[in-house]
Task: structure prediction
Amino acid sequence: MGEVAVIGAGVAGIQAALDIANHGVKVHLIEREPSIGGHMSQLDKTFPTNDCSMCILSPKMVDAERNPNITLYTLTEVKGVTGDVGNFTLSLVKHPRYVSETKCNGCGDCMEVCPVEVYNKYDAGVGVRKAIYKPHPQIVPNVTIRDAEHCIECGLCYDVCGPEAVLHTDEDFEHEFTLDVSSIIVATGFEIFDAQKKRNLNYLRIPDVITSLEFERLICASGPTGGIPRRLSDGEKPDSIVFVQCVGSRDITIDRPYCSCVCCMFAIKNAILLKEKNKDLDIFMLYMDIRAYGKGYEEYYQRAQDLGINFIRGLPGEIIAGPDNTIQLTVENTETRALLTLNPGLVVLSVGMEPAKNSDETAKILGIEKDESGFFSQENMKINPVGTIRPGIYVAGAAVSPKDIPDSVMQGGAAAMKAFSDAIKN
Result:
């Protein structure tokens, strides 16, 4: 019986790996970040049920680590693929962690004594981490990573570590290895759109204009503000919030003509969570079209309206900085033709999805194609929606197109069964 490689360990990749492994086939789960989990691990709640995101994801992460048929490779990237279906050889490179994965027990003593603080990617840049760190408390594997770029070599982490798991730079190094597998699943996920490309919205020029992912970390109980949304300019609670939709989606001026599918519901979810806790908070949602297409999504949208969230069909031409960190924007309600001037305390840009970084290189390495939007192409959307032009290589999740968590999980399961079929034939 053959083995399977899953590239990318977000929720789609984890689901695919678990489905294959539970059928008795060996799986190699490959992730370039220090922990598996992907973007879903950054979320507080999921729509339309408002369930805790990590309550759903964390058991899957732990199951993937404990399953005897799954081998995890974190901080690892694919550099080459040769062979055909039933007989692929992957060339991989593992980047140094500078912490022993066998000795570290995840206690965090090294993080407590580290004097260096840098922006935390997991918190979308609105929080900080140490030079030796865990991206978040529930990482898998539960092992710290030392950031050699920002480490000042003070030696405190070496001294405090009882198991002597922290390695010196020359004790851990980048190394290459190969894997032989029957089939490959590509679940490399997505990146969020860089809102700086929409210069009229003044993201990063006005401190209280933030992205939806940054806002997600602010309202998350494990986030840098303990779940209380605050203005980045002065740390105060905003008295009104404006959500601006379709930033980096459905916009031909920046070569993003496609809809990112989740932005409407993502913003509605956060607006509902805010309004339920802060009934006096004024919330406005500026939109082009509300796309509530999934099961229970229209009812969720209606719930937001019933709570008093203001939906205005129209997008602002520009966001302007006023005196004393104030914000002003003018929008035309295209349903009533009325002009409305808003002075929110906080503006949240609902940024869209775009292909994962290095996806061009990944497609070239794997010998598969990309579509006009830059995501990986499917062989046939109706007959084989997880297949590619190269037999034995399958795609799943947001690597194929923007999609929500249920659709990503479903497609991960579909790709798993295709890969499993190849494995049992070889």
User: Anything to note?
Assistant: DSSP finds nine helices and 24 strands in the chain. The CA atoms of residues 207 and 233 lie 6 Å apart. The first helix runs from residue 11 to 21. The two ends are 5 Å apart (CA to CA).
